[in-house]
Design brief:
Elements (H helix, E strand, L loop, with lengths): L5 H17 L4 H13 L3 H14 L4 H13 L3 H14 L3 H4 L1 H16 L3 H4 L5 H6 L7 H18 L8 H16 L3 H14 L3 H19 L9 H12 L3 H85 L1
Helix pairs in contact: 1-2, 2-3, 2-4, 3-4, 4-5, 5-7, 10-11, 11-12, 12-13, 14-15
Amino acid sequence: MSHFDTKRIQTRLNKLAQITKTGEATFKTWSDISVNLMKLGKIDSAIHILIPLVEKHPDEYNLLSNLGTCYELNGNLTKALEYISKGYEINHSSHFGSEWIHIKILEAKIKEKNTPGWLDHNNIIEIEELIKHTNREMSPRHIEKINRNFFYQLRTRAPFTPAPNKVMANLLETIGDFNMEYGSYENALLGYIYALVYENSNWLDRKIKEKIRALNIKRDNLPSKPELPDAFVKMMKRSQINPELVLMGIDEFANKQDSIHLHEIQVIDSLEILHNQLTAKTKKDNKSLKAKERIIAKNKNERFLFLGIGLLIGAVLTFLLLRRRKSNST
């Protein structure tokens, strides 16, 4: 799964440190510093920065959210839930309106801590709760909203969460179930695939593989099937044999998409090179044309100059000749 680019984060921290030395740093600057420290695993340092900021700016959602996340990462789940909940009360639409999922995750982690094994037999979020968050309007737009909420939370959580992980497996299985019932085949399959990555027990492995098989059977029985990319169909067929091979299919699909993207970039680059060559040639031709025009203009000017000089000499000679004749006649 995804990881943080530590080199890039350190570069960002260096730039932020320079701002603090100028005296122009705001609480947002320090909040940014804390987030980057958090990404580097320096949780205590981040908390040390955030606590006084939250005390000074108690209604700043980002500060509350960042502090709550820090507490979650260092294992203080009660404090984490407190600050994430406060932040959500202030701004329900933050993080694309997905922080309600974060709250459910923290509540589930507390239950798992108090009752080990709770996550093995319970869903962090029930399908009924997801339907409730669509206002029971299961339109494509509302279904997409649920997926977007889930995917945002999963994407931001993944770099902090190496596999295996019960929470991630639980969430991914749920998003697979939701899409199997209401959403798209692709989203359901991807949910199950990555649940396999994060699961850590044989029974859950078997359970998810059975769901993938059921998903494929359901699609086969549809009266009309939406078109899928060839690579995705190949991946789907592999999963009917052994769901673990789907992971290879995902890579193949991604590689194919990357190769298409790379080809597009190469085509664009080729067109850009051709454009630059034509532009350079045009500039060269224009430069050559302008040089010729300058030469022609110079020659023209020289001709006018010589003509003028010739006329002047002719006029002088005529004047002298007339003067001599006049002198001889007298």
